[in-house]
Amino acid sequence: MCIYDRLHVLWFPSLYSGVGLALCERLLTEDSQLRLCLACRNMQRAQAARSALLTSHNNANIDLLHLDVGSVESVLAAAQEVKARYNRIDFLYLNAGIMPNPQIDFKAFFKGLFSKNVINMFATAEGLLSQQDRLNSDGLQEVFATNLFGHFLLIRELEPLLCGTGDTSRVVWSSSSNARRSAFNIDDMQHSSGTEPYSSSKYAVDLLSLALNRHKNNQGLFSSVICPGLVMTNLTYGILPSFFWTLIMPIMWLIRIFTNTFTLTPYNGAEAQHWLFLQKPESLDPRAKYHSLTSGLGKNYVESRQMDIDDEMSDVLYSNIIELEQEVRSKVSKANTAKYGNRER
């Protein structure tokens, strides 16, 4: 196996033709010498994404890695693979996310569609969406595990490649305008008792990013949060029946003239992630969320907006997740002992 001195970008996509792929295209256009690693659950689609990138960047250095961030076993195995391949990571883009079984309140939708609140309704989905979550094979709530905990566990595993004197590394989380304090309960961080696990998990992302900066900046690791805006991806299309999107798309393009949050295309949605790639981490605000925006005339730009978060809740969440991490590791250790111990007998 080849061991490379450093990996410039480690990308965790949830959608192989969405914002993540558009970001990789933009990064390679910015610097063709980058070494990218696409960490994906579906390796067939990952290979297709790699082939698409190589079509326009023939000499690009693009590696693949199998990873399902919703599985503790997969995260730990992938982390070992990364540490065996590389000595350093410059950027982690954490794009993976799920919104299972979205249910929409159509009465509220139609009421909002013809009201002055229509822009905010599309931007935040406040009062519109609920989801049905479930436990995964690790005994964790699936949305929490995929959107937050799996990423955090991976960061912890890769700290030897991320933290070090003389160098800085960057973690960039994909959050959402749907991340709301009202959906999050610090006493139920996995949102096992609620109906908005997606919003809860994204608000937890905002809190955790702040905590990571407080705990890891002195070790050279910096964390940022972005919002891609309203982008038409598979995740978005999954909220409503396809024919319904066909009906309302003309309205959305019309609304776009009056708002900057309707980025709509993956290329536009990747604006904030691409912009962060060019910034010095020390100059960034750890309490800001960086939004991809598109003007009515189609111009892309980035705007920082203060997140509705506080230090105390951020610290409590960080401590709770560290405690959960220890519990999960203990379970894995016991399972491995039982599995391999029995073989030795």
From TrEMBL:
One family name in Pfam for this protein: adh_short
GO cellular component: endoplasmic reticulum membrane
Location relative to the cell: Endoplasmic reticulum membrane
Metabolic or biological pathway, per its Swiss-Prot or TrEMBL entry: Steroid biosynthesis; estrogen biosynthesis; Steroid biosynthesis; zymosterol biosynthesis; zymosterol from lanosterol: step 5/6
Catalyzed chemical reaction(s): 3-dehydro-4alpha-methylzymosterol + NADPH + H(+) = 4alpha-methylzymosterol + NADP(+); 5alpha-androstane-3beta,17beta-diol + NADP(+) = 17beta-hydroxy-5alpha-androstan-3-one + NADPH + H(+); a 3beta-hydroxysteroid + NADP(+) = a 3-oxosteroid + NADPH + H(+); 4alpha-methyl-5alpha-cholest-7-en-3beta-ol + NADP(+) = 4alpha-methyl-5alpha-cholest-7-en-3-one + NADPH + H(+)
Keywords assigned: Endoplasmic reticulum, Glycoprotein, Lipid biosynthesis, Lipid metabolism, Membrane, NAD, NADP, Oxidoreductase, Steroid biosynthesis, Transmembrane, Transmembrane helix
EC number(s) stated in the UniProt entry for this protein: 1.1.1.210, 1.1.1.270, 1.1.1.62
Record-linked Gene3D superfamilies: NAD(P)-binding Rossmann-like Domain
Membrane topology qualifier: Single-pass membrane protein
Enzyme class, broadest EC rank: oxidoreductase
Main location, first listed in the record: endoplasmic reticulum
Coiled-coil stretches: none
Membrane spanning residue stretches: 235-255
Any one biological process term the GO annotation gives: estrogen biosynthetic process
GO-annotated molecular function: 3-beta-hydroxysteroid 3-dehydrogenase (NADP+) activity; 5-alpha-androstane-3-beta,17-beta-diol dehydrogenase (NADP+) activity; estradiol 17-beta-dehydrogenase [NAD(P)+] activity
PANTHER family per the UniProt record, alphabetical: 3-KETO-STEROID REDUCTASE (PTHR44442), 3-KETO-STEROID REDUCTASE_17-BETA-HYDROXYSTEROID DEHYDROGENASE 7 (PTHR44442:SF1)
Subunit structure: Binds to the short form of prolactin receptor.
Family (UniProt): Belongs to the short-chain dehydrogenases/reductases (SDR) family. ERG27 subfamily.
Protein name per its UniProtKB record: 3-keto-steroid reductase/17-beta-hydroxysteroid dehydrogenase 7
Gene name of the record: HSD17B7
